[in-house]
């Protein structure tokens, strides 16, 4: 009888065995490459720097908390999932190597936990780790049988492999083959029409800035960009008339589809859903707000990073702080595309700006039915994560221009807490707050 009764367990063991074999082949290839290059003795310093600015900082990790420098979310943040997964894979590989000849040596090592660890990325070479581990050292040969708890440091280097080139078409075909839902004719192309779906209620000056930005960045020969404006009437008829004039000016350059929501109360999720309803199933949707400005390159990345049936794109936007907290030099500068830590921050936990094909948007379930401010973007992001789609997140040339936020007490508790959190995070940088506190100490 076979010792393993469950097929799913057998499959996991088979995958693990293949992973071990793959690691052996990779290590053998790396050894042969070193021999060919007549590499020097192994060292944690694979790159020698001439200035302190060239030194790669180590990230310190303890438990689920990381401490870093000169990066986003520094100095303290929750350890990234990919880093935790990488450390776990390293531990498995280390102890597989340690115990490869356990029977002949008469001892076995078992992992307990990691006290702390360091990690750094050398862009041209690989990733370096220093792991402080607690492990069990077990001797099982008589008469020296013993079990000891010992502490050891492991110095690990994960070297990058050689660069392999692949054409864009082959890459996209490989992506589509990973999922049975994707079809060859559903692959995104660089000439897909992008539909910018914009909800709007009042705020004529903000919409005018948004329109001016569109007219300045989109070249006249670009015929594959259309605007879907979901328009709510405001309490001020003058503001609505100004907006209609701006729409008229914009429509001379770009196709503008206006959906009139009349006197309904503003709801972003419902507005975006109404905007998608008039579009074909193969439409490339780009959900955006009037507070955003961007460059033309962003549209190209939307086309490249959004793949029908395979991938949705949630760009990381740069959100400006209140101008009152800026330095005098920053206030004098008119450009919004200045990524100064005193001017703003990259919003890693904002999901309101997104691009996805309508077919995939409908497949994941669209926006949930939320009243008032917030949560509809998080709901869509979680649905995409749970679906067959891959989700790509990366910083892009999208800037959220600061505006005041109101969080009325009538909002649901969860949404109000998110609203207050977003409001306080956008007031000022930590540097500015530290300067203000220093005035009273």
TrEMBL record:
GO terms for cellular component: Golgi cisterna membrane. Its EC number is 2.4.1.-. Residues 15-42 form a coiled coil. Belongs to the chondroitin N-acetylgalactosaminyltransferase family. It is an enzyme of class 2 (transferase). The lineage of its organism: Eukaryota, Metazoa, Ecdysozoa, Nematoda, Chromadorea. Its main location: Golgi. Pfam families: CHGN. The keyword Transmembrane helix applies. It is a single-pass type II membrane protein. It is found in: Golgi apparatus, Golgi stack membrane. GO terms for molecular function: glucuronosyl-N-acetylgalactosaminyl-proteoglycan 4-beta-N-acetylgalactosaminyltransferase activity. InterPro entries: Chond_GalNAc, CS_glycosyltransferase, Nucleotide-diphossugar_trans. Keywords: Coiled coil, Golgi apparatus, Membrane, Signal-anchor, Transferase, Transmembrane, Transmembrane helix. It comes from Acrobeloides nanus. The keyword Transmembrane helix applies. This is Hexosyltransferase.
């Amino acid at each position: 009888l076979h010792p393993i009764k469950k097929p799913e367990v057998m499959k996991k063991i088979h995958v693990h065995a293949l992973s071990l074999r793959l690691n052996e082949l990779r290590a053998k290839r790396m050894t042969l490459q070193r021999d060919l290059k007549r590499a020097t003795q192994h060292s944690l310093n694979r790159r020698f720097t001439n200035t302190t600015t060239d030194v790669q900082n180590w990230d310190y990790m303890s438990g689920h908390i990381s401490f870093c420098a000169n990066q986003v979310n520094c100095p303290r943040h929750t350890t990234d999932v990919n880093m935790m997964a990488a450390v776990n894979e390293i531990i498995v590989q280390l102890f597989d190597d340690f115990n490869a000849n356990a029977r002949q040596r008469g001892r076995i090592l078992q992992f307990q936990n990691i006290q702390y660890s360091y990690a750094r990325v050398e862009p041209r070479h690989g990733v370096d780790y220093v792991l402080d581990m607690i492990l069990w050292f077990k001797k099982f040969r008589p008469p020296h049988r013993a079990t000891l708890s010992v502490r050891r440091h492991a110095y690990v280097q994960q070297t990058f492999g050689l660069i392999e080139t692949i054409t864009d078409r082959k890459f996209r075909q490989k992506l589509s083959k990973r999922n049975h839902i994707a079809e060859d004719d559903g692959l995104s192309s660089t000439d897909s029409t992008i539909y910018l779906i914009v909800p709007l209620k009042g705020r004529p000056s903000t919409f005018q800035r948004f329109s001016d930005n569109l007219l300045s960045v989109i070249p006249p020969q670009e015929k594959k960009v259309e605007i879907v404006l979901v328009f709510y009437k405001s309490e001020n008829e003058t503001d609505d008339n100004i907006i209609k004039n701006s729409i008229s000016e914009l429509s001379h350059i770009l196709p503008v589809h206006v959906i009139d929501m009349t006197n309904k109360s503003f709801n972003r999720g419902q507005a975006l859903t109404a905007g998608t309803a008039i579009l074909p199933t193969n439409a490339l949707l780009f959900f955006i707000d009037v507070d955003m400005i961007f460059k033309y390159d962003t549209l190209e990345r939307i086309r490249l990073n959004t793949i029908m049936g395979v991938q949705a794109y949630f760009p990381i936007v740069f959100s400006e702080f209140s101008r009152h907290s800026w330095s005098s030099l920053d206030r004098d500068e008119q450009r919004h595309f200045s990524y100064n830590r005193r001017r703003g921050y990259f919003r890693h936990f904002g999901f309101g700006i997104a691009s996805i094909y309508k077919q995939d948007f409908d497949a994941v379930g669209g926006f949930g039915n939320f009243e008032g401010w917030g949560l509809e973007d998080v709901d869509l992001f979680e649905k995409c994560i749970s679906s067959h789609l891959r989700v790509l997140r990366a910083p892009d040339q999208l800037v959220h221009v600061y505006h005041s936020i109101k969080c009325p007490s009538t909002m649901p508790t969860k949404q109000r807490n998110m609203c207050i959190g977003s409001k306080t995070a956008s007031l000022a940088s930590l540097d500015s707050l530290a300067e203000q506190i220093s005035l009273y100490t």
